[in-house]
Every structure is written in structure tokens, then in C-alpha cells.
Amino acid sequence: MAFVAGEADGLDVATAEARALRLDEADPGHRHLFHVPPADGGEHPESAYLAGNSLGLQPRATRDELLADLDDWRRLGVEGHVEAGRPWLPYHELLTAPAARLVGARPAETVVMNSLTVNLHLLMVSFYRPAGERTRIVIEDTAFPSDSYAVRSQARFHGLDPDATVVRLKPRPGTDTLGTEDVLDFLAREGHTVALLMLGGVNYLTGELMDIPAITAAGRAAGAVVGWDLAHAAGNVPLALHDWDVDFAAWCSYKYLNSGPGALGGVFVHERHLGNPDLPRFEGWWSTEAATRFEMTPESRPPATADAWQISNPPIFAMGPVRTSLELFDSIGMPALRERSLRLTRWLELLLDEVTADRPLQVVTPRDPARRGCQLSVRVGAGNAAELTKRLRHEHGVIADAREPDIVRFAPVPLYSTYHDCWRAAAALAATVAQSSTKGQPR
Question: CA-to-CA distance for 385 and 406, rounded, in angstroms?
Fold first, then answer.
């Protein structure tokens, strides 16, 4: 099935598929650097993979580089800590500078460690300090469940009632996304009660990109600590955490950063907090300064860097894929990826406009490119989102993902997605969801 895109954008070719193929010739991206799963349906050999917002694809370099680290263990045993090709003792430092560049931070403010929610807990130990009337934690109502569980458990840990302590900001009636003005209005009214403001940089459900600098400035002006969950933002949109004056942030590496399932996450702590002896923090073997680590003293001597938030020695074989991926981002650059992301996502949006026009489907992601990353979320009327994604995969070779009950998420990732992938997704959606008379039921 072919689609004719809107004349207003100069897309006046006979069919969108032909246009997609020409766009791919002119703007090819970096698909050749990744393994793309074979299609499990449809007429194309490779999947149209639009689920990088859930799990990124494997870079081709990952296997060989990980095997090289494994081989050092085989050859050297314990001596690999200092004699490996990439020595294990300082291995995490190989990731620090590229991770800092990715999120707009200084190396001293950045460390790769643990998983996302573990890192959020470690950071909240330091930065959620309820006192007096300033006890509340503010998140968005559509926060990822793990964040909801984390902040509620932090409230209980401090002897507070989570139902009274955790504030869930909701979109205004009749809207799908939480506007910046909604957050600012709340802070203007009730900021004096907020100890911690911790939102998602890009909302996992709707794909909305929050105005991180404006919200951070308002939160800090209200006297709150401002942290960000950047699980769907890191590697998706440009970030400038240091310049934006964010207090702390954490992110995962298995989505847009393509580091594998359950990959290590990252942490940012603004330099104004580094070396502060009054800031509480859990400590362990890797929290102390490297130069004196093997003096085996009973008291930690933490460095004045984000490394002070580390606890255990780094898992080398988990760090390898993160390092490989960060090198890709360093070589290509977020500005170039963001520009291609804007082009790809706009193309998918044009195609979805045609599909949704006469079907019970609705794109709930903001249309303003400045308010979104690459993900477009489609509400599937009264249909079953999970069943729809199964049909897209098994009948058409299109991999998207579902968030029940009614959201299907499509993410044209600029590193490896193609314009033809976007066309395939739109064509598959049109072929699978009947027109409006069926009220959104897959046919």
C-alpha cells in the first residue's frame, strides 16, 4: 500500500514508498553499523525495527570488543586488573568522558554504574532530605512504574505516608501530555512544600520531551532539589545538564544507547555538590579515591567527583558494550543524530497523519518537534495494543511495542532506522487496523 504525503512539506512524489527509498539514498544513517533482526513476517528480509525506545539494536562492534575483554580474563586471570588491553582497575574511566559529552556534563560530574533505579535510590539517599513542611516528591502521573515505586519507598523509608508525600502531576483535562506551564504553575503555588522534583526528561508513554532547563530553573528557584530520569532522553535528544544547573540525573543504556538488555546506567551530579562532606551518601569499595584504595583503611576517602557515588567494583563485561556504544555516539555526534531524528520523525508523522485520518487511531505525542524525541505514540481506540503489535510483527515484519491498554509506540531511531522502515510501519498499521466503522478493532 502506498501513501501520498502532504504537499505542504514538498512531498509531491507519486507514492510515499518511492519517496522513502529516495530519502534513504540521500540520508542513509548508520544502519550498517548494527545487526538488524530478520523479519518474522511480510515480504522484506529485515525487520522494520521501531522499538529502540525499549531496547536498542546490537552494534556490530560489540561482540568482538566484548570477546577481547573476555580473552584478557582467559589469558591473564587476576593480572588483568592491570595488564589487560583495557585494564580493569580503571576501566570505568574509559566511559566517563564520552558519557559526560553525551549528556552535556563535565567528566567529574559523571559516572557509569549500576542500573537506573538503583542509581535513583542512591541519589535520593543524598538529595531527598525532607524537613519541616518541605517533604513532598513531585513526579508526573505517567511516570514509569519503577520511578513510582522508588519514590514511594523513599517516602516510607523516611517515615512518611507515600500517598500524602508523592505528588503526581497530571495533564490538564482534555490533553494527553503534561505541559511545562502545568509544572511551573504547580511550583508557583506549592513549591515551598517540595523537597524533590524528579520528572522524566522524555515521557516513556507519550514521547513528550519536557522543557528541562525551564523546569529545573523553576524548581530550584522554589527551593527544591531537581533530578531527572533520562531513560528515554539520553541518546535521543541533546542534553546540557551542567549548563541547565540540574542537581542530579540518571539514565539507562539499553534503549537509545544500544548497550544490551539490562545494561549499566549512568549518573550525573552537578559539580556544586561534589566534595560536600555534609551530603549523606552510601559508600563501598569503589567510593574511595583510587590512589589509596589498596591501603585497606577502614574509612572511605571519597574523591570530589561523581565516582564517590560508586559502591562496588565495576562489572567489566557489562561495561564493555556501554563503552562500544558511547564511542559510536562520540564519532557521529548528538547534533547530527538529532537533525536526522527530526527528519525521520517528521516523515513518520506525515505518514501516520494519513493513516489516522480515517481510522480510530490518534497520535498523542506533541506535534512540535521541540517537544518530543523520536518516539511517536499512537492510541489505538478500543483496540488491544499488545495484539496489534503482534500482528504488525508476524504479518508485516514491523517491530514496535505496546503499553497497555491502548498505546503503540513507534521510534524511528536515527542511528539505524530508515525512511522505508517508517513507510513499512505506516503501511502495516493501515493494513491491520480497519477504518473508523470498526472502532479501532484490529481486523
Answer: 5
pLDDT of residue 440: 42
Total Cβ atoms within 10 A of residue 267? 26
- Give the type of residue at 346: R
Sign of CA dihedral 107, 108, 110, 112: positive
Please report, for residues 95, 119, 205, 261, 300, the alpha-carbon distance to residue 310 in angstroms, rounded to integers and kept in the order given: 14, 9, 30, 21, 12
Q: Diameter of the chain by CA atoms?
A: 74
Q: Which set of grid coordinates corresponds to residue 39?
A: 523479519
Residue length of the chain: 443
Note whether 125 and 324 are within 8 A (CB).
no
Find, among 440, 403, 417, the residue nearest to 348 by Cα.
Answer: 417
Average pLDDT of the chain is: 94
**Helix, strand, or coil (residue 436):** helix
pTM, 2 dp:
0.94
- Residue 436 pLDDT class (50, 70, 90 cuts): confident
Query: Within 13 Å and on the Cβ side, how many CA atoms surround 348?
Result: 33
Helices 116-127 and 145-157, axial angle in degrees (round to 10): 30
Helix extents (H) in 77-211? 80-83, 93-103, 116-127, 145-157, 162-165, 180-190
Amino acid at 175: T
pLDDT > 50? residue 10: no
Residue 174 gets the label, from left (phi > 0), alpha (psi -120 to 50) or beta, of: left
User: Which own/partner contact pairs does 398-402 have at CB distance under 8 Å and 24+ positions apart?
Assistant: 398/42, 398/47, 398/48, 398/50, 398/424, 398/425, 398/428, 399/37, 399/47, 399/48, 399/49, 399/50, 399/51, 400/50, 400/51, 400/425, 401/51, 401/53, 401/54
CB atoms inside a 10 Å sphere around CB 179: 17
Q: Within 13 Å of residue 239, how many CA atoms lie on the same side as its CB?
A: 33
The total of other beta-carbon atoms located within 10 Å of residue 238's CB is 13
Edge-to-edge order in the sheet of strand 376-379: 362-363, 376-379, 407-410, 401-403
Which three cell numbers, joined as nine digits, stand for 302? 571519597
Block residue for cell numbers 505541559: 179
Q: Are 309 and 113 in contact (CB under 8 A)?
A: yes
Q: Look-up: residue for cell 535521543? A: 236
- In SS3 terms, 286-350 reads as HHCCHHHHHHCCCCCCCCCCHHHHCCCCCCHHHHHHHHHHHHHHHHHCHHHHHHHHHHHHHHHHH
Residue 128 has pLDDT above 80, yes or no: yes
